[in-house]
Design goal:
Elements lengths: L4 H16 L8 H10 L28 E2 L2 E2 H4 L1 H13 L7 H10 L16 H7 L3 E5 L2 H10 L5 E7 L9 E8 L5 E4 L8 E3 L2 H5 L3 E9 L1
Antiparallel strand pairs: 1-2, 3-8, 4-5, 4-8, 5-6, 6-7
Length: 219
């Protein structure tokens, strides 16, 4: 899809943020070894949500105790959660490893400012392709609304949006939606609940926000 001027500016801003970020302190080799051990997600580290039971994560706010770089999954980890949900919903027989997903996102240097500002939404396609999942990237709201209206049951979209265009400091959020037989959408982690919420259409999902990019999942 052709990008608007807004999209081109936003993509450039993401590249600049990646380029200017530097760790505040250089880590010693000893510290690096310690961090590597801590990020291995051993059985003593409750990184994968213990109560998830290989179900989609729908309540991000419960995981503020799980680190995401310099932040936490509960605060800025919506994109790793969305990646996990796509993989789980797309292949219900073999559940993904949430901790491994977080490590891969970090290895690709997708987190912004060490995770403090979340994750680069324009790297979602690259992350999913690394798992063998192809996507169609959509940046135009009208195009997305049309594709969603024509989508068949079971179709998945990963949507990233500004939360509130009147209050940009509220940041961005990513979530997964799945088309149901009644033409409504199950929304995973759109709002923090212990169950998927439901929406009739894209406008209802976006609310006061604005679309950044959506990824139609090709299963």
């Amino acid at each position: 899809m052709k990008n608007s001027l807004y999209q081109k500016i936003h993509r450039m801003a993401m590249k600049i943020m990646h380029a200017v970020y530097r760790p505040f302190k250089k880590r010693s080799k000893e510290n690096e070894a310690g961090n590597k051990t801590a990020s291995a997600f051993g059985s003593d580290l409750p990184y994968a949500p213990a109560d998830n039971g290989q179900k989609p994560i729908t309540n991000q706010g419960k995981y503020k105790h799980l680190k995401y770089g310099k932040s936490s999954i509960g605060d800025t980890g919506c994109i790793p959660i969305a990646i996990y949900n796509v993989m789980l919903l797309g292949n219900r027989e073999e559940g993904p490893d949430f901790g491994e997903i977080v490590e891969r996102v970090k290895a690709l240097k997708a987190p912004l400012f060490g995770g403090r500002m979340g994750t680069d939404p324009y790297m979602i396609d690259e992350i999913l392709r690394g798992y063998g999942i192809e996507t169609e990237e959509i940046t135009n709201k009208k195009d997305l609304a049309r594709e969603m209206a024509e989508a068949e049951k079971g179709t998945l979209f990963l949507i990233t949006q500004w939360n509130d265009m009147r209050r940009p400091l509220k940041g961005i959020h990513a979530y997964v939606v799945e088309k149901h037989a009644d033409d409504r959408w199950a929304c995973y982690n759109l709002v923090y609940r212990d169950y998927p919420t439901r929406a009739a259409n894209l406008a209802e999902m976006l609310g006061r926000g604005r679309l950044i990019v959506a990824n139609r999942i090709k299963l």
